[in-house]
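Hey, resending since the last one bounced:
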Amino acid sequence: MLGSFKKLQSSKLFINTSNFFQPTFNCYLADSKSEIKAAQRLRYKVFFSERENKIIKLNSFKRETDNYDKYADHIIVTFKKTKFSKTKVIGTYRLLKQNIALKNNGFYSSNEYDLSNLLKSNKYNNLLELSRSCINKKFRKKNVLQLMWKKIHEYVVENKVDALFGTASFLETNIKVIEPELKFLNDNFKMPDEIKVKALHEYKVNLSNDIPILSKMDIAKKLPTLIKAYLRLNAYIGEGAVLDNHFKTTDVFVFLPFSSIKETYLKKFSKIC
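The structure tokens again:
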């Protein structure tokens, strides 16, 4: 017994601590109220506090919320600088399934767009609305968006979704500034007539007749990152843009059939760690 004790004393106990100080990212569906509240605080920070014009919203909790949150699923990306650091929510995306939406408040997009043609379609019977996408400013050059799209891909496959849609925004309300981009989207990425979604008349912005002509390369440089990402996946754009006075943005409708997504991107999503 004594010999065994001496042997134990002489042996070196080695603990690998290298992983303790490695930053870690995790992406998953929020499964608690506290995680959803953390996502709402991030939304408030990105949509209001971070904006250059400092949009002021009177919300003592500093959370961006609406009536659709309680019915939706929320993807979150968390970050820990080290094993001992506090976990931060640095990215989020809201997902609302068609069967859930129609039993409750409907779709968020219906506040700005007429979805009747799309919802009557026999071709697309299991839609998924994407909304409230945002990433903490410090992490926008990381692979956070790709992590969320990997999770969206898994969600789509698991729930047999046949098409995704939602609104995407320009951080601009002066239509003159973004008219070339809006015209480019409207002219080149039209939805098929039988499912065409149109901006509600009372919110639709009117484009002028003397829009400057820019090259596709110049326009591509000016498009918001999220809209460019959707277009790379083969998305369509609905008819008309909408002025959103709450968020101080100009919104366009994006429609993405799952079957249209390029195979190269599907493979890329599956390989993201």
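Residues 189 and 236 are 5 Å apart (CA to CA).

Sorry for the duplicate.
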